[in-house]
User: Fold these one by one.
Assistant:
Number 1:
Amino acid sequence: MKTADSSKFPSWFFIVVLVSLRSVDLSSALGETQQCVDGTYEHEGVTCCLCGAGTYLESHCTTTQPGKCTSCRERTYSSHPHNQESCEPCTSCSHRNANLEENVSCTRARDAMCQCKKDHFCSSKETCILCYPCKECTEGVKVSCTATNNTVCSEKTEGGTNTGLIVGLTVPIVLILLGPLVFFWIRKTQP
Ligand SMILES: *[C@@H]1O[C@H](CO)[C@@H](O)[C@H](O)[C@H]1NC(C)=O
Ligand SMILES: *[C@@H]1O[C@H](CO)[C@@H](O)[C@H](O)[C@H]1NC(C)=O
């Protein structure tokens, strides 16, 4: 019995060693892919890790060296994993006369967002580049000004301004046309 057992030992041991070697191999391979939390890309036949949000690629990986990712510089950002060699410049809300203000500030991993200043509305429904002051109503507001729509004033106000405009234009025209006639008529009737 004893001799039979010891003769079996080497082959059994060999299998255990092989299996454990393989599992060591597997775990180290898994370990490498797990290090690439943001995914991978190919560079000159080598699989490299993508750079995460908030960083940019400083150097590609090689067969012997891991790649290098560096934090985005001031006023730049990257919001998704990538392998670009720079970050995107942050959106600015401070263009002159644009009437915009920053409502979401820029970080390394997120762009800034702009919204219209108070009492201003944007003409476009997508990214706003320019905001206009909301119309002020003298009579009353029918629909309040929103971020995308101008104020709608009550009908009365608009009717009033139209009548005023018609009167304002008609009276001078009538006076200009009738003035000379009246003048000559007065001169004729006077002895
Ligand atoms: C900031 O403004 C934009 C529109 O310009 C809007 O889509 C976004 O929801 C706003 N975010 C916050 C946090 O107010
Ligand atoms: C803005 O006005 C348009 C029509 O001019 C309308 O279809 C839209 O619903 C309005 N949006 C808001 C937010 O009031």
Number 2:
Amino acid sequence: MAGGHLTIDLNAVRANWHALDAMSAASVPTAAVVKADGYGLSSARVASVLAEAGASWFFVAVAEEGPAVRSVVPKDAKVCIFGGHMAGDADLLRDHNLTPMLNSVEQIDRHLAELPGHAFGIQLDTGMNRLGLEPADWDAVRARVLDLDPVLVMSHLACADEPDHPMNQMQLANFHAMTDGMSVPRSLAATGGTLMGPDFHFDLTRPGVGLYGGFPYENAEPVVRLDLPVIQTRTVDSGETVGYAAGWVAPGPSIIATVSSGYADGLIRAQSDKGMVFAGDVACPIVGRVSMDLIGVDVTHLETVPDALTILGPHQGVDGVADAAGTIGYEILTSLGQRYARTYIGG
Ligand SMILES: *Cc1c(COP(=O)(O)O)cnc(C)c1O
């Protein structure tokens, strides 16, 4: 088999969820954010493991992602939709018992008209300016909405991966101002907010990336390993070039491994000439352009070239690859290609 091999450790996902859960008080449940197909790792696999571990709140981005999660969690678990209730969602929300986090007065009106009595939550904007009701909208509808017992009132932090950023305290103050005195459960923290401590925990935490081993949860157990087969090896002379656009010029006689995986598999092209892969413990640089299906790797310094090189593993996680590619671990995870053979450990 010439394709890459992705190994996903569900035991590590479970351990990360338990560790994040332990950071908040026992009375504060910890949800699991499984949007984008569980950050690319399979929302159904992750949700089923975490439901067994005790999670009872799950979040996805859009209603279409809900049924895959609903089908693997207990009936009384909540499957919530960050994007709220969009036109055309009513059947999905009802048939699969999904809970929209309503983001605007328009969504509130739609929800109450189309699915009266169906559970919902409210998302407030405390400064990120992405999703949620602004303070003036909230003031206008708050009394009417609270009468209907929303399951949650939530907001999202823009800068929680930088604990000292002034936005965090500003959004915290705004959230208090918009929600203090209510009896509805409140939630503000994703992974970064969970790490920032109890002031940010309120009644529910909502980690995503930390479950999957990504920054800002630096003590996370690694979840993914990605091994890429070497298809062939060649020697090149000083001055010969490797790859498209003749992008890399051999500085001396070199041994180049051609490795299976490219930008079509989510190897971000910006890591051309920057990224690293590993032969066991030894780093080997990616040389030349990342192609659609292949990369070139300089293995001149290896005594023997292994059958496969490791791009995600003990020496380099999703954030290491992200640094080389000029992006974030989230994008590395959600880009992991459908062509890789996948093995799930544990669960
Ligand atoms: C994605 C997301 C989360 C999870 O964020 P992480 O940084 O991955 O922990 C939580 N809440 C909202 C609203 C989100 O969009």
Number 3:
Amino acid sequence: MDERYGFETLAIHAGQEPDPSTGSVVVPIHQTSTYKQDGVGGLRGGYEYSRSANPTRTALEECLAALEGGAHGLAFASGLAAEDTLLRTVLRPGDHVVLPDDAYGGSFRLIATVLAGWGVEHTAVHLGDLDAVRAAFTPATKVLWCETPSNPLLGISDLAALGQLAHEREALLVVDNTFASPYLQQPLALGADVVVHSTTKYLGGHSDVVGGALVLADGELAGQLRFHQNAMGAVPGPFDCWLVLRGVKTLGVRMDRHSANALRVAEMLAAHPAVASVYYPGLPSHPGHEVAAKQMRGFGGMVSFTLVGGEQAALRVCEQTTVFTLGESLGGVESLIEHPARMTHASAIGSPLEVPVDLVRLSVGIESVDDLLADLIRALG
Ligand SMILES: *Cc1c(COP(=O)(O)O)cnc(C)c1O
């Protein structure tokens, strides 16, 4: 599909031409493992086995590539499966990764335990401090890993500056764009080499599927990744691909509402006497506000805050909301609340990525904002 179409048009149509055999407007769920061959090696549509390729997955991959402004999209069984396939394609034992000191806990665990066992080294650093990032590079650094906004502290890093820094040292800039989604931020245009997604979150958008994706422009690396996607086999099933495709159609309107609701929530929290600090890049007081305003179309739906009453107060708030559901994950239409130190980021205890114990993280959904505000105010007491 013509990539000059607007984002919302691409979200609904890219990779999703009406089915040529039936006219079905919605991409069918091709729930099949194999394909009839017309004579040995005579493939009808290029499909032979669904680990290698499946038409529903192809539709999703083409759509995601269009939304990120990349030439190649690859879908995986989870965000971590996408990360693992990427890292074990571009790294060799002895290589080094620079990653954020507030990276998603699962990404840190993958690099610091699984890949460490494979001989890959890493340094965790604050990506907002470009001198510290420069100092963290070694001659073996092959990947600069970036997450902006970061999870759970909503740190913002300057993608264009990091891209330049990585390329001066012939390293790849990999950007986990899960929190922003391609609607709010397009890292490839700012200098990223590969974009990573947990499609479980905003792309899927309805908390009903686990998936991941990689998007990139470089055809040679895409070919290596495509080979490993098949050779390592961490692929999503057709129904999961279909759920993500269905979610993506409404990504733009959802992100607009997530962002509007989150700003109202952040402003309320910032003025509340029980709240010590609020982390939301849409607030002018956030240290990354200007960079975020430059590289993002909106500030997203994630808000974190700490409480005057410390850890006990944080735990109490998490257990006293009713519209906000206590649970891990994020990016769905429903609002979620959680305590990162004991839940999503428990595996970071004792590491450079340990998060404050008095921190509460919100995934602000698209319910009526007055109900969200009232629920939090009631829980804050
Ligand atoms: C959830 C998440 C991941 C991991 O994705 P899964 O789909 O859970 O494997 C990676 N990065 C970020 C920022 C996430 O929020």
